[in-house]
Write a structure and sequence with these properties.
Blueprint: H1 8-14, H2 19-26, H3 30-39, E1 41-42, H4 44-58, E2 73-74, H5 88-101
Parallel strand pairs: 1-2
Helix pairs in contact: 2-3, 2-4
C-alpha cells in the first residue's frame, strides 16, 4: 500500500523551496539534502533538520512527530556516495531552473 502522505520532494516543490535554500538554511552536506530529496533516505537527525528548514522556508509545519510527511527511509549511515560529488552543482542548477519555470 502506497503512503498517501506527501513525500519530502513533493512538499518542497509544492512550496517552491530549492535544494540550495535548504542547504544554505541547514548547513548540511549537499549530498545529505539531495539524498533525501531524490531517494527519500536520511539519518534521523538530517531528516529532522530538513523538515524544520522546510517548515521555516514554507511557513507550514512539517515534522516526524506531526506524521505529515511520508515515504522517508531512515538510515544511520546512508551511502552519500550515491550522489557523485561532480554532479552536485548541476543538480542544484537544474532544480532551481525547474522550480523557476513552474
Amino acid at each position: 500500500m502506497r503512503d498517501v502522505r506527501p513525500s519530502f520532494p513533493e512538499l518542497r516543490q509544492l512550496h517552491a523551496v530549492t535544494l540550495y535554500e535548504l542547504i544554505e538554511d541547514t548547513h548540511l552536506d549537499p549530498r545529505a539534502v539531495i539524498l533525501l530529496d531524490t531517494r527519500s533516505i536520511g539519518t534521523p537527525r538530517h531528516v529532522d533538520q530538513l523538515l524544520m528548514s522546510l517548515s521555516r522556508l514554507a511557513g507550514t509545519q512539517y515534522s516526524r512527530q506531526a506524521i505529515n510527511v511520508g515515504d522517508i527511509t531512515f538510515k544511520l549511515h546512508p551511502d552519500y556516495e550515491l550522489i557523485p560529488q561532480d554532479t552536485i552543482l548541476s543538480l542544484l542548477e537544474a532544480d532551481k531552473l525547474k522550480l523557476k519555470n513552474e
